[in-house]
Structure formats: structure tokens, C-alpha cells
Amino acid sequence: MITVGVAGASGYAGGEVLRLLLGHPQVRIGTISAGSSAGSLLGQVAPHLTPLADRELQATSPEAFADHDVVVLALPHGASDGLARELADDVVVIDCAADHRLTDAAAWSSFYGSPHAGAWPYGMPELLTHGGVKQREYLREVRRVAVPGCYPTAVSLALAPVLQAGLVESTDVVVVAASGTSGAGKALRPHLLGAEVMGGMSPYGVGGGHRHTPEIEQNLAVAAGEPVSVSFTPTLAPMPRGILATCTARTRPDVTAADLRAALDKAYGDEPFVTLLPEGAWPTTGAVLGSNSVQLQVALDEHAGRAVVVAAVDNLTKGTAGAAVQSMNLALGLDEQAGLSTIGVAP
Ligand SMILES: NC(=O)C1=CN([C@@H]2O[C@H](COP(=O)(O)OP(=O)(O)OC[C@H]3O[C@@H](n4cnc5c(N)ncnc54)[C@H](OP(=O)(O)O)[C@@H]3O)[C@@H](O)[C@H]2O)C=CC1
Ligand SMILES: CC(=O)N[C@@H](CCC(=O)OP(=O)(O)O)C(=O)O
Q: What is the CATH T-level fold of the domain 151-315, as seen in this structure?
């Protein structure tokens, strides 16, 4: 059995990691740690994790994670790197925070306003990279993984195939995406006041200011083989989980709807966790709740000359914890699908 510890186990991402690990046949759950709720029982903060209800949350420290095979960090941005540096080189460290996602130090400083901690292998196995090689080939036997952001998961998987196939202009990509409130974590954020959130939808990070913009552009540039410029607008939707991303890009001359569909089909036809829906069916967040699936659909807007690719993911599952477990499996040479399900919860 592999011993996996989780730092930030009292939070939404850490809780979802534990939910998935409880269903993993080769995993024994080791230390679970927290910040202010250290000393509490997990059942007090995450009552849905029944089998672990009596486990005590430890203070987060390198010593608490000694003798683990894997440590998953589900801590706020900036808190991961210090702990990661104290963990042994042969321990697999999977970081759900943004600290190690960006390769460009200037982009990091500009969007996060702190020193760049450096980039780790990026935990999106299905992402197309140079020459059509999937990112999973760069995750085998690694000891450090940066788990992608939730919006970049939906958007990058939606657009990478059509960019790599040269079907759309890399300089004209527009994304509007809606997220459930759990995307912001348990801590109260200014844009997350309960009464307002429940009543309607609202945009935030408008005008290119959201920190996922450079992450999306980084992923798409790797797929396209050239810089990609993205206008990204996130919105907050009155639902606990889920992301629906509507991604459009100007098509190159003579591109047909069949070309777009063929690019996505070629990229994901063999992927267990990315599904191009049958023609006429559209992704919904409800269909992917609790599952590690990404659902996609594509259309050609001939009038506007744009490709439209819609993606649905569960921000906490494929958008965080599922990607963490999938990457852990690759790093350890286990079955990539172990502990992961494509079965959603409905209605
Ligand atoms: N929510 C999402 O959809 C996604 C989240 N992520 C990333 O995952 C990470 C966790 O996010 P999320 O679970 O949403 O956030 P939460 O606020 O829900 O949880 C944060 C966790 O970190 C702990 N914590 C906070 N500060 C410290 C500290 N200084 N030292 C030790 N532990 C601390 C908290 O413990 P306590 O509550 O006890 O203080 C809690 O367990 C973030 O980096 C986030 O960006 C990534 C993709 C998507
Ligand atoms: C609804 C909401 O607030 N979502 C979060 C993104 C969640 C995510 O993916 O997080 P990290 O990149 O922070 O890991 C946000 O927009 O800040």
C-alpha cells in the first residue's frame, strides 16, 4: 500500500482529495493536516468523509509528513512551496495550489505579486503538447506535480486540439466561464457574499485580470506551438460545484464544422476522462458532478466565423483532486484510472 498524506485536509480541495483516495485500492491515508482547524476531528469539518470522521487534523509541518510515499498539498497559494522544500526528494509531492504551475517568472510576479517558486511538471495528462505528445508522457515517475487550476482545465482541454490542428487563430481566443462557489475555497472572499451569490450570476476578474489567464495562455501556446492571446472572463454561478466554459476562436479560412469535430475526436477518442458528446448534446455541469470527466461539444458559428467549444468539469474533481490523483497514479506507475470515476451524481 502507498501512504498518502494530505495537507489542507479541512478545505474543499483537500476534502475532495480524501474522498477520492478513500476509493483508491492501493492507498492508505496517512497524516491529514490543517491550519486553524488543527486539533479538530475531520468529521467536524468534513462530515461527508464518514470513514475518516474520527481522524484528528494535525498541525501542518514537514515532520507531520515524514515517512510518507506521497504528500498532497491543498494549501492556499504561497503556503505550499515552503513545506515542499522540506520534504525529501524521493517523496511524490502533488501541489494543488498555483505556486508551481507557471514557467514564466514574470507572468507569475505580475499576476500573483510574489517571488516565483519555479515550475513543476504540469498535471494535465490529456493536454496536447509539441508534436502531439500528450502531457502524461512528462508525468511518468516524476516526484513533483503542479495540479492545474480549475478554469485552465476546462479551457485548455477544450481549445488545445483546434489550436494544434491550426484550425483557429491563436490571436483571437475569447473565453467566458461560469464556476460554482466552491472554486473560491472555504474562506470567505469579497466576491462571495452568500445572499448575493444565491440570487444570480456575476462576473469578476474582468478585463484580463484573472490569474488563470497566463496559465491558460501557457497551456494553449504549448499546444499551438506559438503564443496564444486569450480574453478570459470568469463568472460566479449560484451552485456549489462545476465549471461551464464557453470558448470561442476565429476560424481560419475554409474550416468546416467537421474539421473542428475531427480535431477533438482525434485528440480525445481514446481518453477515458475526456468525452466529446454526440452531435447535438451539450455539456452541463450537472452531468459531471463528482466525476473525473470533462465533457465537450463543438460547433462552427459560420455567421461570426468562430469555433465554439463548450466544456463542463467539476472544479473540485477533474478541476483539482481528480487531476491530483490521476497525476499521482502516473508518477507512481499505477493504473492511471485507479480511484477515479467517470460516473456523475444526478439529478
Ligand atoms: N476549490 C477549487 O475548486 C480549487 C482549489 N485549488 C487550490 O487548492 C488549494 C486549496 O484550495 P481550497 O481547498 O479551495 O481552499 P480552502 O480555503 O477550502 O482550504 C484551505 C486549506 O488550507 C489550510 N490552511 C490555510 N492556511 C494555512 C496555513 N497557513 N498553514 C497550513 N494550512 C493552512 C486550511 O486549514 P484551516 O481551514 O484549518 O485553516 C484548509 O485546510 C488552493 O491553493 C487552491 O487554489 C485548485 C483548483 C481548484
Ligand atoms: C469561483 C472562484 O472564485 N474560483 C477561483 C478559482 C479556483 C481555482 O482553480 O483555483 P486556483 O488557481 O486558485 O488553484 C477563482 O477564480 O479565484
A: Dihydrodipicolinate Reductase; domain 2 (3.30.360)
